[in-house]
Here is the input.
Amino acid sequence: MYKYVAKYFIPSRVFKFCNLTAIPTFIIGLIAFLLSSYFVIYSLPADIEQQEIYRILFIHVPSAILSELIYLFLAVNGFIYLVWRTKISAIFLNSAISIGLIFTAIVLISGSIWGKPTWGTYWVWDARITSTFILLIQYIGLIALRSSFSSKQTTDQILSIVSIIGAVNIPIIKFSVDWWNTLHQNASITTSGSAIDSEMLIGLPLMLVSLLFLSFSIFARNIQFEILTRTGKTSAMREIING
Amino acid sequence: MDSIETVLFTFLISISLILILSLSSYIRFMAKLKNCQEDLDD
Here is the structure.
């Protein structure tokens, strides 16, 4: 199974795939973002309690989902790299860190802006916000570690280990609102249903998909950069660049 | 700020951050590609 999957992740093939998809996904993502933004800002009705300000949640929630999923993606790739030593897993890990950092920053910024009129404060050290802030520090730490070692192999090993250990924060973020008394509300969407009106709910997946496309376009460029960085001046390099 | 302006401001900050990262990733990749092509030409 592993060998069957691995043959599709040869760096030269991945480089070519990224070359083909980076620009189209960026264009699709940007158009989808603009349309989704127009829809959630101007078409959806105002909330009965929060009025207009609730619309910030359409950027806050998808960014929160992505910031956590990307960290899990790092941990999974770190694990695969440590177990099977696959070069492409290390490339994926390195390429996703900056994207996770940006989405975590967006979560905290949009949450703060939403918090002022709703909670009366930009910031409070409650469990959900603090654990998300720790996630931001984890991403910054990974970026700092990435440039701290001269050997790529050592860097990949350290990043993999730190990513796996750091993944313990993801369930803490997710369940913090259940485990502790927090100012942050509980999950609005659960397996038993949604507390959000179905008319408003549609905005969340629309925005999530647009952000996924934009993330992929950045991810593709980062992968291409990492592949070039790791390929010496050999025929492999010629093959990758010339296709 | 009016609340709809606050919403627009938040969306603008968010997309700006994403576009800045996108642009920096693209510039970084193109610079690396240029270096590699020059190395291969030598």
Remarks:
- The longest strand of chain A covers residues 189-190.
